Amino acid sequence: MDNNPYQAPGAHVAEAADEQLAGRGERLLAAIIDGIIMVAIVLPVMFATGYFTRIQNGDTPAISVTIGYAIAGFLIFLIVQGYPLAKSAQTWGKKVLGIRIALLDGTQPTFGTIVLKRYLPVQVVGSVPLIGPLLSIVDVLLIFRSDRRCAHDLIAGTQVLKG
């Protein structure tokens, strides 16, 4: 019966073992580190451009201003995190914790895949008034799946591994 042409293929498909996947706590701490870095850079920019003064005066920023800040924030993210993402598929926070972004086969994704599929969709969706913050929460809560992949990982076909 070994030569059954109707038998399912017997090849073993390699998947990342649970011990290779980065832990949820590691990913959270890396995101916190990256967030602190971004806040330290973006807040002074927002103060310098008068954003908080307008809010304090009760002025609601025009949608064009909100879009401008979202674009500026993403560009600042690319300036700050671009080098480690391109070189090793790590943000500074991931680098500190020894974890990295990888494709499902464990190889390093291209910089374009990381930026255009993993980070840009989250930035765009997160910027949508009212529903954006809710969808951002859903994105990160998906980490509680057994494969520990958030929505941005599913979109980009990536995972976060140790090493």
Automatic annotation (TrEMBL):
KW Transmembrane (keyword) present: yes
GO cellular component labels: plasma membrane
Localization, UniProt: Cell membrane
Keyword annotations: Cell membrane, Membrane, Transmembrane, Transmembrane helix
A Pfam family recorded for this sequence: RDD
Membrane topology: Multi-pass membrane protein
Entry's transmembrane regions: 28-51, 63-85, 122-144
Domain RDD intervals: 22-157
Matching InterPro entries: Pra-immunoreactive, RDD
Keyword Mitochondrion: no
Name of protein: RDD family domain-containing protein
Source species of the chain: Lysobacter dokdonensis DS-58
